[in-house]
Amino acid sequence: MRKFTQMSNHIPTYQLGQLTTNDAQGVFFLGQKPEIPKIAIDQPYRSNFYKLGVCVNGHAEVSINLDTYQVVPGNLVILAPHVIKQWKYMSPEYELADIFFTRDFITTNNHVNPDKFSFFWAGAKGVIDLLSPQPIINSIRFLQQKCLEEQTYKDDVLRNLINSLLYEIAAIYTAASTANLNRGQLLVADFKRLVNTHSMKERSLKFYAEQLFISPKHLTETLREITGKTAGDWISEAVTLEAKILLQSPSLNIAQISDMLHFADQSTFGKFFKNQTGMSPAAYKQGSDF
Question: What domains, with CATH codes, occur in the chain?
Fold first, then answer.
């Protein structure tokens, strides 16, 4: 088993062109080209592309926003551009049948926007177990075959095949994401979705309880029972992740970031960030490799 190192001092946003020299096409399959450059997926990152993949061999551990998943054969991995990912480890034999594509590629000529699918929404479950993984694997392999072929309408063929795959996964995801979850677990999932969507602006327990139509006390007790954390813990983790993303940008100063995250002032933001990470926003920003 290959263990990865601890996170670095910044969260990069990778482009599809860092996986392939043919970014113009907007779709890519891992293993498609032998000259794939190495990117630091063992550190937290965002991307400008979507990824769908089924584990066919080995196992891995991946963090997606606030959740950590174990990936084993038969699992479907779903990664949207906006989520923060970090692959904690991969076994030497780890292998996915996967596809990467950009929004620009898939939406050309009024094709479906992938953001309409709930499995790409903020707070969606990033790894699900497939009862019958082979049909999805076959669909991805067929897409890869078509990608390698030279034909006049290749891009349109690929878009239509990806659209079909998205709808196929949508049906599976709807059933799998709520299967065998009790009422409390469903409540936690809804809370995490809300936190990923609203934490830049909303920090109060009351806001999230009202959105879920329950009392603050019930929300607090449910979160502690199921996750061992308070609502404040989850909200702080989400705000810290977003702050790290914003501190990566050379065009934003700390005062601007403080405003974007709706802190009262820069000093309040600085105290919060240092309490969460052990370092000041300025030190974190200076340590980033822009």
Answer: 2-178 (2.60.120), 183-286 (1.10.10.60)
